[in-house]
Amino acid sequence: MPRGRVLTLAVLVSAVFAAHANARFDALGSPGLGDPLFPLAGNGGYDVGHYALQLAYEPRTKVLDGSATITATARQNLARFDLDLRGFRIGSLKVDGRPAAFGRNGQELQITPAIPLKSGRQFVVNVSYSGVPSAVTDPDGSIEGWVATNDGAFVVGEPQGSPSWFPSNDNPRDKASYDISVTVPAGLTAVSNGTLVGQSTRNGRTTFAWRESFPMASYLATATLGRFVVTKGRVAGIPSYVAVDPSQVAGSAAALAQFPEIVRFLSSIYGPYPFDTVGAIIDNAPEVGYALESQTKPNFDSAPDVTTLAHEISHQWVGDSVTLTTWPDIWLHEGFATYSEWLWADHTGQFTPQAAFDYYYSLPDSNPLWSPPPGAPGDAANLFGDPVYFRGAMTLQVLRNTVGDAAFFRILRRWATQYRYGNVTTAQFIALAQQESHMDLGAMFHRWLYEPGKPAV
Ligand SMILES: [Zn+2]
């Protein structure tokens, strides 16, 4: 190769490199947000402001056709960024109206816009997709996501199920508002978060349009559908929408009768209900085997008892409105919801939180309740283990006994109001508890949250 040509190429290459380096348009959004338990959940480089999902589901073929319009803001220059999506065939993918190149790698949908995005710029992604959704199996063996039922689908997202039905930045740190419309065969009902803003039937298909205006983490989105008996009205003065599978109506009556008092009671503990709608989806989904606190519409796999209803309603404050930043802090949801059950039991004259504490404390060192400690579940398979729920709730009882009732209930209320709609850490809770009690609680919290084995009292 002649010397002159080599030089020319070298000059050209360095000039191109300099241009890119100046604009930093070669920047790639990271494929995950580094959660200790789910490192690929969510994506770096942008924040979603709004999801508009248009879904159509045919239970006979189990095919879901989706169109997602995602409005986001670049937090860095982006030559490429990811969304999380599991399965499906992509029909078209556009960024700001222009076709974009894309690739697939596991749960990562890697998008290269025709024109790189500048930091600070708002952009719109449109993804149309189609296929038979697959449920996600978690490290603990439980299933979530889009779970087909005999009359539709039971749709729950914690902790990593949302990408099984829509492309998302699937991390609790990136809350957004949602418009979710679902078209189903006439006679079925599709229930999602927030308010039903439209319902129309045409050519044997009914479209339900739902809007959740409050910030919502992606794992709390639902689009559960099937045959439901729907009751609309008010619960404790708040517009309500309760959908119950016909087979579960009789079994749900006793718990649903307590719904208004649960909302009133929990409002007296945590402050005003954080959203503008309440509700419940009570389905017949025995293969799921758990309930989930989907925002404004907790999902139940079968008729709940009143304790389970109180648990999921309490999550609207602790979990949905005040949400963990990383998954190992899950006790901030489940320990608090379990403690809410104990408060409800006390309120209704069944047992006191101290009696619950004493019962669990009587269990031997060998009981799985004690390890791993609730503040450090260590492994995704332990995310919903006994320590997170029961030892987590016991930690709150120890706090109550240490600081006294007045400070304790001030802490709970302050926690739910000061951090409303936000993301939190255990360190922030400890700091708030110390600030409200004027006590050094570090050693107590460390013993109860982070040391394996049964803590001494
Ligand atoms: Zn829970």
Give an overview of the whole structure.
- With 457 residues, the protein is an alpha+beta fold.
- Helix content is 28%, strand content 30%.
- The strands form 6 sheets. The protein has an 8-stranded mixed sheet, with no helix packed on it. Strands 17-18-19-20 form a 4-stranded mixed sheet, with helices on one face.
- A hairpin with a 2-residue loop joins strand 10 (143-149) and strand 11.
- 48% of the residues are buried.
Q: What do the pLDDT scores average to? A: 94
Structural class: alpha+beta
Largest sheet: 8 strands, mixed
So, CATH architecture of the domain at 46-227? Sandwich
Short overview:
With 457 residues, the protein is of the alpha+beta class. Among the domains are: 46-227, Immunoglobulin-like (Sandwich), CATH 2.60.40.1730; 323-450, Neutral Protease Domain 2 (Neutral Protease, domain 2, Orthogonal Bundle), CATH 1.10.390.
Task: Give a topology summary.
Layout: H1 3-23, E1 46-58, E2 63-74, E3 81-84, E4 89-95, E5 98-99, E6 101-105, E7 108-112, E8 122-131, E9 136-137, E10 143-149, E11 152-156, E12 176-185, E13 189-192, E14 195-202, E15 205-216, E16 223-226, E17 229-235, E18 238-244, H2 249-257, H3 259-270, E19 278-282, E20 299-300, H4 306-314, E21 323-324, H5 331-347, H6 353-361, H7 386-403, H8 405-418, E22 423-424, H9 426-437, H10 442-450
Parallel strand pairs: 1-12, 18-19, 19-20, 21-22
Antiparallel strand pairs: 1-2, 2-8, 3-7, 4-5, 4-8, 6-7, 9-10, 10-11, 12-15, 13-16, 14-15, 17-18
Helix pairs in contact: 3-4, 4-5, 5-7, 6-7, 7-8, 7-10, 8-9
The protein binds zinc ion.
Residues 311, 315, 334, 337 line the site of zinc ion.
